[in-house]
Amino acid sequence: MEDIILWFKYLFLGFVQGATEPIPVSSSGHLIIAQKLLGIKQNGLSFEILTNTASLIAICFIFRKDIGNLIVGAVRFLLTRKAEYKADFLFCLYIIIGTIPAVIVAALFKDKIEEIFSSVHTVSIALLLTGVALWLIRNLRGRKMDGDLSTKDAVLVGLAQAIALIPGISRSGATVITSIAVGMKQETALKFSFMLYIPISIGGLVLGASDIASDPNRSQLAIPYLIAFLTTLIVTYFSMRWFMGIMARGNLKYFAYYCFVAGILLLIFL
């Protein structure tokens, strides 16, 4: 019976991760809250890495055509220098530039950031700040498309992704908000945000592989981890599809409302 209860707890954690990873409400913050409510304390980063990998697989599957086109276009530009492929090459270059700030901050300060900010109080404040940012950009409609981005845009969005290393600050929220704020169209903001997510997540998986291999609970929690992984994979796919529809309609204000309500409730009750 205890095993079944534990399986359901990890099923719920996987659902929380999958549902919140694509949308601008902070998956890391919601996992902290969910673990506190369920009485589960994770030692190490194994669980976080596994569930993030599941989300990564789902998002890569959704954007597989975009990823393929960008890679092919960038390689063709390097080989032929034809102008028709330059936009793809530059987009890839901006993804690399936008990834650098988060890599630097993660390498130097990630453990310290998680030690200082991994509390429900921090999450509640971060949700309120995210809500304010979402509210401020709710009516913006940019004009920049994939081929109109600049190095400055990439750096600003990259800095936003670095700030999102603080638990409770949504990575997708920070990058989408900043992308829209610098003038990107909704679909370009969404695409650039999640193209940035891919290399940073792959890097986290590579660097965290040793944590998974050395996890003392690996055998004991193999089934719960598998349940969480599969749940995250499936739920991320449908949550991402849903968020793409929301972005197309420009209804980000509803996420602002959610962040306000969730942040206030957490301050009051937890």
TrEMBL record:
It is an enzyme of class 3 (hydrolase). It catalyses: di-trans,octa-cis-undecaprenyl diphosphate + H2O = di-trans,octa-cis-undecaprenyl phosphate + phosphate + H(+). Pfam families: BacA. Keywords: Antibiotic resistance, Cell membrane, Cell shape, Cell wall biogenesis/degradation, Hydrolase, Membrane, Peptidoglycan synthesis, Transmembrane, Transmembrane helix. It is a multi-pass membrane protein. InterPro entries: UppP (IPR003824). It comes from the Bacteria. GO terms for cellular component: plasma membrane. It is found in: Cell membrane. The chain crosses the membrane at residues 91-110, 116-137, 192-210, 222-240, 252-269. One of its GO terms (molecular function) is undecaprenyl-diphosphatase activity. One of its GO terms (biological process) is response to antibiotic. Its EC number is 3.6.1.27. Belongs to the UppP family. Bacitracin is thought to be involved in the inhibition of peptidoglycan synthesis by sequestering undecaprenyl diphosphate, thereby reducing the pool of lipid carrier available. Catalyzes the dephosphorylation of undecaprenyl diphosphate (UPP). Confers resistance to bacitracin. This is Undecaprenyl-diphosphatase.
